[in-house]
Write a structure and sequence with these properties.
- Helices cover about 100% and strands about 0% of the residues.
- The protein contains two helices and no strands.
- It starts with a helix and ends with a helix.
Length: about 170
């Protein structure tokens, strides 16, 4: 009976140890799964933060590019305006020289007849200048329309590019 009791006690002890071992294995497996979930969650959060940072950096770069393009456009317009002013001044000076030359020649020839011719030439120059001014204004309006159209197309391409990247 004592040996039987000892065998039963040993059997019960072995079963208890096995249950405890199984319990520890199950606990370890649950802990491992929980750690894996936490790691995946942290990885996803990190990826989302990086994605948001990339989006913000792309937006800043796009805004900077737009500012640079606007600055370049304004500088180009100012250069063209200065060029037109310089051209007009040169043309005015040339016209003044031509008028002085014509006056000198007029004084050397039959004065009344040449004065009448000079007057006709001056009127013609005024009409040509007016015509040239109107043509320049039309060219300027056309240029502004083309610039606006190009800017709109560029903005549409940038928007399409930004949507494609997102």
């Amino acid at each position: 009976a004592e040996e039987e009791a000892a065998r039963e006690a040993e059997k019960a002890r072995a079963e208890t140890e096995e249950r405890e071992r199984q319990q520890r294995l199950a606990d370890a497996k649950r802990a491992e799964e929980e750690a894996a979930r936490e790691a995946e969650k942290a990885r996803a959060e990190t990826e989302e933060r990086e994605r948001q940072q990339l989006l913000a950096a792309a937006k800043r770069a796009e805004e900077e590019a737009a500012r640079e393009a606007e600055k370049a456009r304004a500088e180009t317009e100012e250069r063209e305006r200065q060029q037109r002013l310089a051209d007009a001044k040169r043309a005015e000076e040339e016209a003044a020289r031509e008028a002085e030359k014509a006056r000198a020649e007029t004084e050397e020839r039959e004065r009344q007849q040449l004065l009448a011719a000079a007057k006709r030439a001056e009127e013609e120059a005024a009409r040509a200048a007016e015509k040239a001014r109107e043509e320049n204004e039309e060219k300027e309006r056309q240029k502004h329309r083309e610039d606006a159209k190009r800017a709109e197309e560029e903005e549409e391409r940038e928007d399409e590019k930004a949507r494609a990247e997102t």
